[in-house]
Amino acid sequence: MAKIHTLHDLIDMKKTAANVEELLSDYRHRNALTKRNLFALRSPQLDGMPHSSNPHGLEDRIARVMDKDTDANGLDSAAYVKQCDEVLAAMVNEDHRAILKLLYFIPQPITNEMIMDRLNMGSSSYYRHRRIALVEFAELWPPAPLELLVYRSEKGK
Fold this sequence. Notes:
The protein is mainly α. 61% of the residues lie in helices and 0% in strands. The chain has helices at residues 7-10, 13-24, 27-40, 57-69, 77-90, 94-105, 112-119, 123-140.
């Protein structure tokens, strides 16, 4: 009898998990950038001193900030943070969502051991669930502009 392969069987879990770890490792920094931009773009203030007038000055400053804020994948920090938050919220398994939230989304990171204690998991169970959580995140992540899933190549074909 021939073995039936599902798409999930073809996912390279190790490489997919590594892609998600790399993507999420930037979350805290990008989240802080979204807050910084709120303070960087301010209305002009009158100080009584004569200045040369540039009618597009504010737009130019906004464009410069946004250009610096876009990563190689084409997502600016606000879009990146929004997309990460939405994908995390869409995850079905509460333990998986909690693992990723505690690892990457809270302001102060905590150790794997602290997460194991909070979720009452042993070491092998925790690391298995962590990898599955990372793959679940990749499955929910939209494929454009960046595909996180890595599929195994079939040998001989």
